[in-house]
Amino acid sequence: MAEQQKEVKSEVISGRNPVSEALRGNRPIDKIMVARGEKSGAVVGILAKAREKKIPVKEVDRTKLDFLSGGAVHQGIIAFAAVKEYCSVEDILACAESRGEPPFIVVLDELEDPHNLGAIIRTAECAGVHGVIVPKRRSAGLSYTVGKASAGAIEYMNVARVTNIAATIDELKAKGVWVFGADMNGTDYEKCDFSGPCAIVIGNEGKGISRLVREKCDVIVSLPMKGKINSLNASVAAGILMYQAMKGR
After folding, report:
1. Mind listing the domains of the chain with CATH numbers?
2. Which DSSP helix (H) or strand (E) runs through 185?
3. Are 127 and 245 in contact (CB under 8 A)?
4. Residue 91's pLDDT is what?
5. Sign of the CA dihedral 25, 29, 31, 33?
6. What is the DSSP string of 8-19?
7. How many CB atoms lie within 10 A of CB 38?
8. Is 132 helix (H, G, I), strand (E, B) or coil?
9. How many angstroms from the chain centroid is the CA of residue 76?
């Protein structure tokens, strides 16, 4: 329980003034939660500023804010702060160029579990991935929990946050990146050539990759399943594919 409280306090900013100051100071914010029906002037101003910065805002019950704030006075609003600045997709491509290597990117389509995100970042850093791309909405962000699960790798990995994953895939393809989507009924991963500029797309823990994102992929790649269940944990599947790609690079 003490560890849980530590995590809550490390990633949550509670109260109108603290949240306002975090926005004014350009601290990276993953999302803001506001009490349902809260319409005070201070909160309205904060939400307007959040919209300008394109920060996701979600209305929730006050009881949820009570829990998430860990007992701190939240005044109807809390923010989830990222533990590290996000980069741009261009920064990831520039990283690959600076190393003299073809781009090697992992794209996460609405991955929600922070432990999975942290584990993927950790494996990505070990496998030589140049950057990880996540969406702004319906996705885990760079929280304290993610940083802890990454075992420090978050400090060395470029993570970009984009508005639209499908549009970002189009941009990557226009720059010559070959996009591999991890899903069922695809090409055996051992028969795929990951040696050139490539991006591996991993989907949501329950739904997999979305229909539109699947259609954007150049190749659907699958892992063989010999057991009685037909899917792997997202971070495990991502790890297998990253190391398969690393072997051919």
Report:
1. 2-81 (3.30.1330.30), 89-247 (3.40.1280.10)
2. strand 178-188
3. yes
4. 97
5. negative
6. HHHHEEESHHHH
7. 17
8. strand
9. 26
